[in-house]
Specification:
Blueprint lengths: L4 H25 L1 H12 L5 H4 L6 H29 L2
């Protein structure tokens, strides 16, 4: 079964956008908890030294979202294209 490259990439991009938005809201509402999660994910003991004092703004969220949209669409489109080529 071949994948529709555009629909697959669009579905993945929408999913990643939703996850990004939820993460941004979580970080804006609970910055200390989000910073602790970041430290755990990156295996950093003193994450405050690297990301402390970062402020979440609407403009920053939008500017961060643009490359996420671009790269997620491009990556998943490429994945679908390669998948279609390999299923022979």
């Amino acid at each position: 079964m071949k994948l529709n490259k555009h629909k697959f990439a669009l579905a993945a991009t929408i999913t990643i956008t939703i996850v990004y938005a939820v993460c941004a809201v979580f970080t804006a509402l609970l910055p200390d908890v989000a910073l602790k999660f970041l430290g755990w994910m990156l295996h950093l003991v003193n994450v405050e030294n690297f990301a402390g004092g970062v402020e979440i703004t609407f403009g920053g969220v939008i500017l961060g979202l643009l490359p996420i949209i671009f790269y997620s669409y491009l990556t998943t489109y490429l994945f679908a294209w390669l998948y279609n080529k390999l299923i022979i």
